[in-house]
Amino acid sequence: MTATRPTDPGAEPPSGPGPAPLQAPPKAPERILMKGNEAIAEAAIQAGCDAYFGYPITPQAEILEWMARRMPELGRVFVQAESELGAINMALGAAATGARVLVSSSSPGTSLMAEGMSYMAGSEVPMVFVDIMRGGPGLGSIGPSQGDYFQMVKGHGHGDYRTPVLAPSSIAEAIDLVADAYEIAERYRTPVVILADGTLGQAMEPVVPAYRMPPRPAFDWAVGGAGAAGRRPRVVRSLHLKPEDLEAHNEHLQAKYRAIEAAEVRWTGELLQDAELVIVAYGTAARVARTAIRQARKGGLRAGLFRPISLWPFPSAALAELATRARGILTVELSAGQMVEDVRLAVEGRAPVAFHGRTGGMVPTPDEVLAALRHLWAITPPRSREEVTGERPPRRTARSVPLEDLEPPARQVRTAQTAAPDVDEPALQEVWR
Amino acid sequence: MTAPLLDRSAAAASDASPAVAAPAATSPRIIAGRPALLEDKSTHYCPGCGHGVIHRLLAELLGELGVAERTIAVAPVGCSVFAYDYIDVDWVESPHGRAPAVATGIRRVRPEAFVLMYQGDGDLAAIGTGEIVHAAARGERITAVFVNNGIYGMTGGQMAPTTLLGQKTTSSPIGRDERLMGDPIPITEMLAVLPTVAYAARGTLADAASIGRLKAMLRRAMEIQVRDAGFAIVEVLSNCPVGWGMTAQESIDHLTVVAETYPVGVLVDRLKAAAAAAPAASVPAAAPPKPSPAGSTESPEA
Q: Where would a tag sit more exposed on chain B, N or C end, judged by fewer CB atoms within 10 A?
């Protein structure tokens, strides 16, 4: 992700095509220390958020608090709702009028918001929704987690629908993605989720904030507002009682989702050029993976990182292509294994897929991930040169690797980490040759 | 939507006179007609149902008050979800019980709008209790129309929180038993105690005179919003002939029995009370008693 956009939050963006109006040269970007939650809140404000609705919950309460102070200062709307049900439905009402709306919560709260998300998807109301994930299930813990992947990526509420989900891996990227999320939401008339774990919400990082305000499209569907006189009444609704009507509506939604899948896939990679082992990870897990990959390379193990940024649409095609060359794929998550299902669906047996995760607010250490990489190396056969160069079609099945071997026993991994931080290096060197 | 393109700016004018073709000089004088904002179509409501009368009153009033063009109405879940097919204003459909939250969102970002909310008793007094209490407590400038027919009509006549004691429904087949199923909730009275509720009243569809009084209540509740005075709610005792297992006429007559549990009348009108108190305000009022500090164990006698 680039952070090179001029920082001029006060300026109105040019609307529509045509040359941008002359602007004063941007001030030298200032490097400041920001907390993730506050950066997300301010990025929404700078992206033109008109209204924020929320309810206190750890570890995202700073978003609510930041908005409570900043929104009234700017003459914009802030309401602390009576519940998450209240907050998401206030968002539905405000967004139905065409306002730019932000809602944020954390795992137990987002469960309550599932109903509203389904209604907003059904009635095609754009909104940006932030989930700062904590440990679950139930009340769980307030520690970081990626346990809401299924909830957010697979639909959240009831019915056949999809929600674009963007997963930042740093605070600077979170700022970028908030503006992108408003663009996607308004372009496709859909709620868009920013999915981050509690670490990203709570951590502070130096950033050069690259705020951006997307141009405001003209809505021909929003209720109220100027121009209501003389036009047909408008209804924002998700009810279509006739089966024929609802099927037509669903087909329309599905066509929209296909368009999003074609245009909005985002991912990034590191050291993939010569990678024999590929780690797939997002958010905080990707940062841990990056450290492990550096360590692995020092030991001669060629590993690389594939980091999905859009969790839906999932970057399946790119990952499938990588899988034809990789010797093995390791998915690392702060969960018991959720994204790994999408990884396996994308890979379709082109390479063995292993998983390493921690739950409950625990974060995998780089040593754990390194051990999992080495384990994967040890149990997978090498790719032939012809397969890697494409001279021969790649094999489609994870031959000779029993599925149970792909799951490194967590206990064993941790024992290795605590007992011998650097496992038997000479033995591994042998395997690598 | 098959709604014809309406010049809704003419709605106010056309409501004063009937919105039907001008009669020939020899025809009898027409003294009533369809309000311009009410769609000319058959509704999906059962014969004898009260929703049609309430829809008509609202269509008349939105026109008479001249607020139709800036109205954003919120439809509930229940029989009246299709209100958006019958009254020609902008509508947002709300999840079950959440209409007060949806209306709050609209109100906050569109201060110029006239926000009308239509909810049934299952919607407002059961699943949406939290939302209605807090919207009222925040004093949202919303006009709430609360249709109390004591039953879940759309899902087949199950017991509602407002169902009368002893009343048989499909989910209280031997009648509502207080010990097992609780007492009917007088939620409008409960809301009326909040200082942010500027107007709370209960009307009934029992007879023509009552409908006239109900219209005056609805008009007042709308004026409260136009005058930015606070939250306003009108409960309407309505009938459900099918759910109650009665003929249309029997169900209308039964509204007299319903009114014994839910007395009809204005519960609070703070704007009127303030106006009445205004002359007295010139006389210095006695200082209110100071609240004793929290946790104080000192008794006045000590």
A: C
Q: What is the CA radius of gyration of chain A?
A: 23
Question: Which chain A residues are Cβ-neighbours of B131 within 8 angstroms?
Answer: 82, 85-86, 89
Which residues touch A371 (CB under 8 Å, ≥6 apart)?
Answer: A408, A413, A416, A417, A423
Using CA atoms, how far residue A149 sits from A152, A156, B74, in Å, is: 5, 9, 33
Neighbouring-strand partners of residue A332:
A356
The rounded distance, in Å, linking the Cα atoms of A136 and A338 is: 13
ipTM: 0.84
Look up residue B128 and give its DSSP letter.
T
- Does the CB of B5 have a partner CB in chain A at under 8 Å? yes
Q: What is the DSSP letter of B9?
A: G
As separate numbers, helices (DSSP H) first and strands (DSSP E) second, chain B gives: 11, 9
Rounded to whole angstroms, how far apart are CA atoms A101 and A92? 9
Name the DSSP class of B13: H
Rounded CA-CA distance B21/B27 in Å is 12
Give me the residue from B72, B101, B109 closest to A86, CB to CB. Answer: B101
**How many CA atoms within 13 Å lie on the side-chain side of A114?**
15
**Stretch (H or E) spanning A261:** helix A243-263
User: Which helix (H) or strand (E) is B248 found in, with range?
Assistant: helix B248-261
Tell me what the mean pLDDT of segment B283-296 comes to: 44
- Collapsing DSSP to helix, strand or coil, A176 comes out as helix
Q: Which residues have CB under 8 Å from A12's CB, separation 6+? A: A213
Contact A350, A323 (CB under 8 A): yes
- A172 within 8 A of A322, measured Cβ to Cβ: no
Three-state DSSP class for residue A285? helix
Of residues B7, B9, B101, nearest to A81 (C-beta): B101
Closest CA to B62 of B91, B101, B102, B92: B91
Q: How many CA atoms lie within 13 A of A233 on its CB side?
A: 28
- Amino acid letter, residue A127: M
User: How far, in Å, CA of B163 to CA of B258, rounded?
Assistant: 9
- CA-to-CA distance for A350 and A394, rounded, in angstroms? 7
A305 in helix, strand or coil? Answer: strand
* pLDDT, tens digit, 9 for 90 and up, residues A288-337: 999 999 999 999 999 999 999 999 999 999 999 999 999 999 999 999 99
Residue type, B111: P
Q: Which of A419-423, B113-117, B147-151 has the lowest mean pLDDT?
A: A419-423
pLDDT tens per residue across span B86-102: 999 999 999 999 999 99
Q: At what angle do helices B129-137 and A84-96 cross, to 10 degrees?
A: 70
Contacts of residue B253, defined as CB under 8 A and 6 or more positions apart, other chains included, come to B206
Rounded to a whole number of angstroms, the distance between the first and last alpha carbons of chain B is 73
Report which of A320, A317, A318, A286 is spatially closest to residue A303, judged by C-alpha positions.
Answer: A286
A206-238 tens-digit pLDDT:
999 999 999 999 999 999 965 567 788 999 999
CA B56/CA B76 separation, integer angstroms: 17
Q: Is A267 helix (H, G, I), strand (E, B) or coil?
A: strand
Contact B109 A77 (CB under 8 A): yes
CA atoms within 13 A on the CB side of A397: 5
State the amino acid at position A416 in one-letter form.
A
In the predicted structure, residue A424 carries a pLDDT above the cut 80: no
- The verdict on A114 touching B (C-beta cutoff 8 Å) is no
* Interface probe, candidates A235, A246, A249, chain B, greatest B C-beta count within 10 A: A235
Nearest to A214 by CA among A37, A51, A41, A5: A5
Cβ contact, residue pair B70, A81, below 8 Å = no
Distance between alpha carbon A352 and the CA centroid of its chain, in Å? 24
Instruction: Determine contact, residues B107/B140, Cβ cutoff 8 Å.
Output: yes
Tell me how far apart the terminal alpha carbons of chain A are, to the nearest angstrom.
36
Q: What values do phi and psi take at A415, rounded to 5? A: -60, -45
